[in-house]
Amino acid sequence: MNQVRYSRSIDWVTLLLYILMVGVGLLNVYAASYSPEMPFSRVFSSDWSGLMAFNWFKQLVWIGAAVVLIVVLVVIDYKAYDTFAYVLYGGMIVLLLVTLVIARPIAGSRSWLELGPVRLQPAEFAKFTTALAVSRFMAGINLRQHNFRQQMVLVGLTLLPPALIIASNETGQALVFGAFLLAYFREGMSPLILLILAAAAVVLILSLLVPKLWLVGVFTVILALVFVFNSRIFRHHLPLALSTYAVVVGMVFGVDFFYNSVLQPHQRKRIEVLINPSADPLGFGWNVTQSKIAIGSGGLLGKGFLEGTQTRFDFVPEQSTDFIFCTVGEEWGWFGTMLTVVLFMTLLVRIIYVAERQKSVFGRTYGYCVASIIFFHFCVNIGMTIGLAPVVGIPLPFFSYGGSSLWSFTILLFILLAIDAYRKQDLVR
């Protein structure tokens, strides 16, 4: 009886969007790994060991496993996600520490656990456990209240997983946790914090593009103009104004230390290529250059399924994973890329709608965490492929090849749908 009520309460729009996106993603993974010498009919005449050599078939296996995960997620009592949020979070912290110790380096990163033929990336799964933990914590506090201890606990819950992920040299996955700020903003975090962070990002970017003395001169002139035209207000807030000025100047001159001493050589190269695409066209700029060629060559309608030359001849490295969007652009053209964008925007709007109708703070906060994480991946991944964001190794949700990515986003989304299906039974906390 409960299952009948559940099937009627599940958000079928979100479920259908998920099925559609995973299906389209599988088609593009197949196209990205397609070889004219191995047509579809010959592949199915091969033995199973031969099939496992193809990314598209392995992705099909991951999708089958994801279906099993979905069944498990919807069968589990929805209250368990709230009750065991901290336990799951603590278990993931332990798993990240174990990964950091025992994982062998792969492409300079210690972020993969190998379980026989299967490789799992705990950093992917840390997103949903962190989302559960912070949602559980925020259900018991009010961010509008200036309780420093509670806010520091929230900061600690959010920053501990990315700190361990950075230690394993997987910076791209760590950046995703910054997306939680959007969920915190919905729950009452001061918009001033977002403005300060945005301003700090602008200052850091300008410090890389503009000569330091010029930039300090501009900020000095701005400070002087504020003093001239608002001298009374300026005098009342003189300590704050001077402190802000000192911090900004420190950031301008401190960016060199961070850039040269903290960032690794390949990370510096990626930033240089982002600023100047012609800086290393045959090295670190190769991926983005070939990706833009692939997307641009698709034109309005694309070259057709399996007809992409950039795709077929492997001009774009990591095309099944981080650069899957350029396969969409080359073979399906502008219409294909726009359809992909519309699919993601529709999913995000639907998730926010689902989040807003929750009866509990826990459910609503978790919904916004889901939307924020998917939004970050969507923006950064597509930004990478068209040269608007540095290449940081972030997959496109439901499209990119990989079991860890598909499973983590499936778990992230279907925990929300499980909570939503029983929302009428929730008590307002």
From TrEMBL:
PANTHER family linked to this entry: CELL CYCLE PROTEIN, PEPTIDOGLYCAN GLYCOSYLTRANSFERASE MRDB
The protein here is known as: Cell wall polymerase
A single MF term (Gene Ontology)? lipid-linked peptidoglycan transporter activity
State the UniProt keywords alphabetically. Cell shape, Membrane, Transmembrane, Transmembrane helix
> Where, subcellularly, is it found?
Membrane
Q: Which organism is it from?
A: Hymenobacter oligotrophus
Q: Listed GO cellular component terms?
A: cell division site; plasma membrane
Membrane-topology descriptor: Multi-pass membrane protein
State if Ubl conjugation is listed as a keyword. no
Q: Which terms under GO biological process does the entry name?
A: cell division; regulation of cell shape
> Any stretches that span the bilayer, and where are they?
12-33, 53-76, 83-107, 163-185, 192-210, 216-233, 240-259, 332-353, 365-392, 398-419
